Amino acid sequence: MDFGLSEDQQLLDQTVRGFLAEQVPIERVRELREQGCPNDRGLWRALAELGLTGILVPEAQGGSALGLLDAALVSQALGHAATPAPFLSSAVMATVALRASGGAQAEPWLAGIASGEQVVGVAATERFSVREEAGLTLDGGRISGKSLMALDAFGADAVLLAVDADTLAVVRTDAPGVSIERLATVDATRCTAEVALSNAEAAAVFEGAGAAITRMLDAGRIALAADTLGACESMVEQAVAYAKQRKQFDRLIGSFQAVKHMCSEMIAEVEPARSLLWYAAHSFDALPDEAPLMACHALAHIAEIGREIASVSTQVHGGIGWTDEQNLHFWFKRIANSRHLLGGPEHLRARAAEIQGFAPAA
Amino acid sequence: MDLEFDERYDGFRQEVRGFLENHQAPKRDDAGELRGADRRAWLSLLIEHGYWARTIPKEYGGYGAEPDLLETVILDEEFTRANAPRGTNLQGTSMLVPTLLAHGTEEQKQRWVGPTLRGEVTWCQGYSEPGSGSDLASLQTRAVEDGDDFLISGQKIWTSTADKAQMCFILVRTEPDAKKHEGISYVLMPMDTPGIEVQPLETMSGSIGENSFNQVFLTDVRVPRANVVGQRGEGWKIANTTLKHERASLNDNAVGTFERLVRLMNRETQQGVPAMASPVFRDRLMKLQARALTMKHHSMRMLTCSLKGESPGVAGLVVKLQNCQLSFDMADLAFDVMGELGSLYDHAKYERERGWWQAFSFLALGLIIGGGTAQIQKNIIAERGLGLPREPKPAKA
User: Between 20 and 30 A from A100 (CA), which of A9, A33, A35, B38?
Assistant: First the structure.
């Protein structure tokens, strides 16, 4: 019985957090938001040198073949530092999908992700939310249609498409008929795009990939939950630090019960959620039957506590928390945007009920 | 991450399970308690096998095993699974006994530990007073020296089982001139002493649920000075070490309550449609399931900390706050599912589950307040867990 992180995992966590604190301080994030895409290739290669981009890639393709709990710790650290990076898309979702699909077609992409030479965006939104007549069709190896809010597709080398419930495909972003337009959101730390395809040639097609798509979404949801939890941790840390140095009415504001209780309520959500996340990530590899339910619950629950913490932490800061200068909004907006990227809480809870047979399948 | 118990515990689990299959536990009364000779015989049998008082030294009436947290967890799980009674009079066994073992004289240990473990003597706890709730250390019940005795006068409240217990461990002020935390002593008081009047304290639970709270009025109650545990004036410290003896255990109570909610939502219908068919109710149910799973896995993390002898830090301080509120919120969904029939009560026609959810909710509300209110918990989390500054003392008027 040992419910917790191994020594290796604790070391991984410290290493990544230390690296990000040094290499991507929030001042750097401010610089990156001025660019067309905040995802920085130099940082991606540096993450590859640390072995992080290939954390889930098989060793044969140059990865370290660790588990989703390890990947979730990286994701959590990225959320904690509000770092823009295509980790969720390339290192988690595309990697899980390509591994599950298998075969020679998948290997070059996996190797490219592990080496840091490739960024593979993911277009899978329509698997849980069809908006603005989005959707893709595959005909004779060529794909047409559009997908919205594709993760990290802008500036990527390729995009992994969930064409329909049973089909995955990869298109190169420089192939004829591929158009990728950045969809700017309030969140300056994540890059989302519309992928529009007009008879574009697929570089790879995976038929019968229903299970791979499910695994991809489960892994993505758990990693995104980790990202939001990391952002929550940072917001609580910043609120507590501020409450210990800000004086009003000749007192540190942290000595007022009203402020104390705001901080207590935030940490009372964060700490147990960490336990939920660990279990969900562990289940993905060790107890795969439980993973779809745990993925829904982990992301829905952490999205809910995240919304509250983002608001309360800002309020602890008072007026300065509302300014651009204080930087808190980078985390606030990352939490807000992440809430719906892989299905919002209402959708995830409906799915959780359906998985357990509480509701008829939608 | 390893969720299995070590193999060497399998044998122990099998042994406990075998015992429970071969031994019929005596019947419990309406309050779920064992009584009289049945209780003594059953607890003695359990101690003999090491399933009760497992780590209490033999010379004081226990089984004398080395402490092993996972064995405790397995015993809890197997006795719960078999619905077999085990602990009784928790004030005596989980609060008084550890205190006596740590601070009592040899004579006090010999006299009280064994009989308490065997259920021959039961205890109530005399801590709270009408004027001293969250600020317990301000307690005013006083003990005045009179020869070899103390004369105790004052009033205690929230004294559960005071109407049945033979003994009370009570906090009294013995040094009226000392600072408030330093003038308190921890005293063992027989409940049949003249000058003790016990009055039942009706709670909002009424005729259902836990209903054994009392007020205790004390007028010149004569107790030998030899009944002080530890040093005079150190009662506050002694009482606080006892609070740390709370046992670690795996807690999936919320998951059990969740399953009960699922059965309720499948059974309750409006216009012939079960509540489970309502997307609104399902959404609320799923929100609660996520919280229940969160606290279940959090308890596994807390158990791991205990096994490794590590302090869980702030992660441990938040458990009571979250679990109590979760219980209360689960009852709220049950009420809304039962609708206008959910308030039926006291064997009324159409009453739901004999008022179980009402009783559960009242108890949950009591637990949010009792043993340190939610607001006191939040102060502790902020000050001890997050290092926020204490509230400045108001200037004396």
Answer: A9
Best mutation target among B388, B390, B391 (most A Cβ atoms within 10 Å) is: B388
Question: Is residue B296, in this structure, part of any structural domain at all?
Answer: yes
Among chain A residues, the shortest Cα distance to B322 is held by A268
Question: Could you give the angle at the alpha carbon of B196 between the alpha carbons of B194 and B199, nearest 5°?
Answer: 145
Interface ipTM: 0.97
Contacts of B290 in chain A (CB under 8 A): 276, 297-298, 300-301, 349, 352
% of chain B surpassing 90 pLDDT: 70
Please give the tally of structural domains in chain B. 3
Residues present in chain B in total: 397
Enter the DSSP assignment of A203: S
Residue B6's pLDDT is: 84
B290:A297 CB<8 A: yes
This prediction has a pTM of 0.94
Residue of B134, B386, B390 to mutate for A, most A C-beta atoms under 10 A: B386
Among the candidates B88, B106, B132, a domain finishes at B88
Do residue A261 and residue B382 have CB atoms under 8 angstroms apart? yes
Catalytic residue numbers of B, as ranges: 246
Using an 8 Å CB-CB cutoff, list chain A residues near B287: 300-301, 304, 349
Q: Is residue B93 part of a domain?
A: no
Regions in chain A scoring below 70 on pLDDT: 360-362
Are residues B183 and B300 part of one domain? no
Same domain, A215 and A190: no
Neighbours of A317 (CB within 10 A): 19
Rounded to a whole number, what is the distance in Å from the CA of B158 to chain A's nearest CA?
A: 27
Whether the predicted pLDDT of B94 surpasses 60: yes
Residue B215 and residue B201: Cα distance in Å, rounded?
Answer: 6
Contact A114, A61 (CB under 8 A): yes
Closest partner residue to B314 among A267, A276, A304, by Cβ?
A267
- Residue B242 pLDDT more than 80? no
Show the tokens assigned to B204.
């909002």
**Among the partner residues B6, B293, B315, nearest to A271 by beta-carbon distance:** B315
Residue A293 domain-assigned (yes or no) = yes
Reported as a pLDDT band with limits 50, 70 and 90, residue B247 is very low
Interchain contact, A301 vs B279, CB within 8 Å: no
**Record: contact A6-B1, CB cut-off 8 A:** yes
- Domain containing A143 equals 121-208
Question: Do B300 and A264 count as a contact with CB atoms less than 8 A apart?
Answer: no
Q: Which residues of B touch A2 (CB under 8 A)?
A: 1-2, 304, 307
Q: Are residues B263 and B374 in the same domain?
A: yes
Q: Is the dihedral of CA B20, B26, B29, B30 positive or negative?
A: positive
Same domain, B263 and B179: no
pLDDT in tens, B77-86: 898 888 888 8
Tell me the residue range of the domain where B355 lies. Answer: 253-385
For A298, half-sphere exposure in the C-beta direction (CA atoms, 13 angstrom radius) is 33
Closest by CA position to A301, among listed A328, A275, A334: A275
In a domain, A81, yes or no: yes
Residue A188 within a domain: yes
> Does B291 contact A260 at a Cβ distance shorter than 8 Å?
no
Cα B236 from Cα B391, distance rounded (Å):
21
- pLDDT tens digits for B296-327? 999 999 989 988 888 999 999 999 999 999 99
In a domain, residue B36? The reply is yes
How far A125 CA sits from the closest chain B CA (Å)? 22
How many domains does chain A contain in total?
3
Using a 10 angstrom Cβ sphere, with 0-12 exposed, 13-18 middle and 19 or more buried, the burial of residue A185 is: middle
- Residue after which a domain boundary falls, among A208, A239, A266: A208
Distances (CA, A) of A310 to A237, A244, B149, B302: 12, 19, 60, 26
